[in-house]
Design goal:
By secondary structure, the protein is an alpha/beta fold. It has 10 helices and 12 strands.
Length: 285
């Protein structure tokens, strides 16, 4: 990669906190190098309260765009000039493009990336019930995209009920074929809702860093064998939740393929080129 960087190389930046664990630089730089594109992708850990300044810095440095990750996916909206139609409905941003005139457009590729991951795992979700833990930016994108793509019911659990209610209100107003419900995070209630669900999705940070030994449920006995378990965390590769899923005999996936697919869509936003996804899978993982 070093040999392709020159005085004309432009920047693509990841803004979030934490980001030191991110595999996005590996994915994106591998793709950029494979296609001979004159950009470099770098991750920047942004302190709370410094998001606006970070965006201005990207503009000053002539960046062509970037990714936005936790905890800024919703906050960033107030600093953007334009928002794509799907991102406006979802209410969350994970990709930005900086135009030559300095205007910044926000997109959301998380939801589509997650759906592509389910499809790769041959998970039947149309007309089915999905249970989601968490109500942050990724949960918004995943729940809304699944509703648009034919899920019959979405139940969202979150410690703060109001955040979950905002998501289900959007779904209930926008997608008449999908019933959406919000509930306060409670393990007993969560386990009850899982009983007839096709997919359980963890969109919380429980299972990474300080909570690496924790999970949204405590026992493999709480999981029906026919529920597909998805955790959007990919570091560690197997969270406590996924270990429990394995013990229960469930099929499961971590967030790696979602990361690759959302990154592939973002790659196209910045470069107008298709990411060589098969190459990324073979070379990076």
């Amino acid at each position: 990669m070093t040999n392709r960087i020159s005085g004309t190389t432009s920047l693509i930046g990841l803004l979030g906190n934490p980001v030191k664990h991110s595999k996005s630089p590996l994915i994106q730089n591998t793709a950029l190098e494979a296609l001979g594109l004159n950009h470099v992708y770098m991750a920047f850990e942004v302190e709370d309260g410094k998001l606006k300044e970070s965006l201005e810095a990207l503009k000053v440095l002539g960046a062509v765009g970037g990714n936005i990750t936790m905890p800024f996916k919703t906050k960033i909206i107030e600093y953007l000039d334009d928002i794509s139609s799907e991102a406006r409905i979802i209410g969350s941003i994970n990709t930005i493009k900086i135009h030559e005139n300095g205007r910044i457009t926000g997109y959301n590729t998380d939801g589509i990336g997650f759906v592509k991951s389910l499809e790769e795992n041959k998970v039947e979700f149309k007309g089915k019930k999905i249970v989601i833990a968490g109500a942050g930016g990724a949960a918004k994108a995943i729940a809304t995209q699944l509703a648009f793509d034919g899920v019959g019911e979405v139940v969202i659990f979150n410690r703060t009920l109001e955040k979950a209610k905002k998501i289900i209100d959007v779904i209930n107003k926008s997608v008449s074929s999908c019933k959406a419900t919000a509930k306060v995070m409670d393990e007993t209630d969560l386990v009850e809702e899982i009983k007839d669900a096709a997919v359980l999705v963890n969109c919380t940070s429980i299972g990474m860093k300080a909570t690496i030994g924790q999970a949204i449920i405590s026992s493999s006995a709480q999981l029906p064998k026919d529920v597909f378990v998805a955790d959007i965390i990919y570091d560690p590769e197997q969270t406590k939740l996924l270990k429990i899923a394995e013990e229960a005999g469930c099929r499961y996936m971590n967030g790696l393929m979602m990361l690759i697919w959302q990154g592939a869509i973002a790659f196209n936003v910045w470069t107008d080129k298709d990411m060589p996804v098969d190459l990324i899978k073979s070379k990076c993982f």
